[in-house]
Amino acid sequence: MFLNLSNETTREAGGAVRAAILTISLILAAVLFGGLIPQGLTPEAYLDRFGESPGRIFLLLGLDDIYRTKGFLLLGVLLFVQLLACTGKRIALLRGNSKLWLAGSVLLHVGLLVFLISTAVSLWWGKSLMIEAPEGKTVVLSQKGLPFDIRLERFLIDYYPGSQSVRQYRSEVTLLQGERELRRGSLEVNSPLGYEGTKIFQMSYGWLLEGTIRQLPDGKVQTFSMVNGGWLAGGNGADRLRGVIMADPDKHPNYKPEVAFLLLSATGDRQAAVVSPGSSAVIGNQEIQLGQIRRYSGLQLKQDPGIAGIFAGLSLSLIGLMLRYAPVGGKKSI
Amino acid sequence: MIQWETILLLLVFVVYVGATISFSLRYWMKSNRLIAAGLLLTGAAFSLHSGLLLVRGLAAGRLPFSNLYEFTLVFGWVTLLLFVGCAIRFRLLATAPLALSLVTLLIGVAAMMPRDIRPLMPALRSGWLQSHVASGILAYGALAVSAVLAVVMLTRSEDKETGLESDWAARYWKMPAAIELERYVHGLIVFGFFFLSVLMVTGAVWAEETWGRWWGWDPKEIWALITWMIYLVYLHGRSRFGWRGQATAWFSAIGFLAVMFTLFGVTYLLPGLHSYK
User: A-chain residues within 8 Å CB-CB of B213?
Assistant: First the structure.
């Protein structure tokens, strides 16, 4: 027999625990599925991998993003309900049997309940936003439901002595409400800046290419601001324009900064031109005027009312786990 | 310094191989000198292994915790330390060939990895690094020893105690009964599971501080969760449904395979945020 039931074990295993173990096994199977089949790829990648019909069924079932399917969330809800029942049973046992390990078991399960509730709060009410804040400019966030706008005053990179390896990078910012200054502060990797329930995280940095595109021959002008290496919809909407700095000014400060623009037209034509800041070039039927290459700081702004509960729940569970298996407190069976 | 490290690494590997062979031969040749030689070689290998970690730490100017090569070396070191503790406390010397084979394998795998010392990237410059990695090493070490004992358990056909001789070596060179082994496996899994949980919680806190998300379904996170859940099912099965015997040994062995896949398989086959090779 694969599972040997011990003769010494005469206790009745509760139905709620059995059901919870079944749910955990189903969650384990789903997590394993996501661990073996890469998630979040493009639909084409799955069609390529599994073939046309199986691939479509795969996508229809949402198996390309299994952790966000309703079925997976339902398993989470089911686990919560079963955990609630198991915890209730343990609390009832604790009333007539005040053993340390039993208290630990209760604490462990209460902690997991707090964790699950807080995770739901986080998923439901939490929100985050990624921005590329240009140095010296203000990014208006109040229209996006955040309590402030943000201005990047300065961005600093610290290198290891004698090398080009980045040791740390930091943004000095001012939080504003209209013209009023709310707070000045700095943030770096591993050290976010908090303000009234919103946390700002240092995520990345790079260069923004700013300038104008003039349609030829009618002269219609549009301004652009694109991330170095990024893509921009071209003048007629179907074209795509990419701009790449030839030599990264961080690594090659002595080189004249130049940008290579590549135009991919809807017909498949490819054209390129190299432009310096302050100059222009004609590429296809558009004239690109490169204004400035400006530093940006990649920031994430996050409001998460569930995060404190998540870590409180996890901490309670760890303490409970320690007490549950602490080598004191007599025979440990429920 | 790097040259010293290479020489030490080779020596550690060779001496561990010697210790493994010496203990293994004891199964065929009933000489206690083989046990004494095995113990001597294990002591020598462990000292050299400690020296290797010291040399690496001095060369890097930090604890050797920051890439897969360093983690594998420390993982092997802690596995041996925990095994020696268990072998002395529970008289499990007869399981030494398997435990030493695993440690030797880890050293061999580490020797094939890049050993260059690179400066820490900003995300790794955090106080959470030490607690996160240390808990991982303790968890993996305990789960490795539990898997060794579980495999021994699976190969035991009957519970006869051997080693009836009265001399010192024979007292330690006896194979415990399967029921005893099962208890040790359980104890080690409890220890490992606790630190596996600490590993995941410290990782979540650190990820929240660094990337503003405590969980991101990164391949390493997914496989750590799979490992954690396998042991979670084991612990509930054992305490609530009285699972004993071979079933628990299989859980331990499968759980450890998940540990190894999380450590090596994910790093090389499913790269993500944790791919610090």
Answer: 128
